Amino acid sequence: MSAQQSPGIQTLLEAETEAAKIVQQARQYRIQKLKDARTEASKEIEEYKKTKESEFKAFEASRAGTTSNAQAAIDKETEVRLEDIAESYTKNRDNVVKKLLDRVVLVKPELHRNLKKVEG
């Protein structure tokens, strides 16, 4: 019986080594597929990133003119306001100085309003 068992065992051992080879090939295939998928995903990510960057640059370029126009308008408005302030200063300077001097020099002595209430 050992002679019959020996070819059966030998066949099982050969089948086991063949199965191990198939499993190893399947693992290598799976690993290669994962690497390919990662590479493909990286390429897609780079393409998407380039697309979005170009869209952003186009958007930024379209808005850059608007920003410079707005800045120019703000600068012009600031100049106009500064000129108005300077004109108002030169026009009202003498009146303000006169009013300040009148308040300081022309003193009208009178009792404090709280003091009047106490006496009254």
Automatic annotation (TrEMBL):
Keywords: Coiled coil, Hydrogen ion transport, Ion transport, Transport. Pfam families: V-ATPase_G. Residues 12-54 form a coiled coil. GO terms for molecular function: ATP hydrolysis activity; proton-transporting ATPase activity, rotational mechanism. Signal peptide: none annotated. InterPro entries: ATP_synth_B-like_membr_sf, V-ATPase_G. One of its GO terms (cellular component) is vacuolar proton-transporting V-type ATPase, V1 domain. Belongs to the V-ATPase G subunit family. V-ATPase is a heteromultimeric enzyme made up of two complexes: the ATP-hydrolytic V1 complex and the proton translocation V0 complex. Subunit of the V1 complex of vacuolar(H+)-ATPase (V-ATPase), a multisubunit enzyme composed of a peripheral complex (V1) that hydrolyzes ATP and a membrane integral complex (V0) that translocates protons. V-ATPase is responsible for acidifying and maintaining the pH of intracellular compartments and in some cell types, is targeted to the plasma membrane, where it is responsible for acidifying the extracellular environment. This is V-type proton ATPase subunit G. It comes from Marasmius oreades.
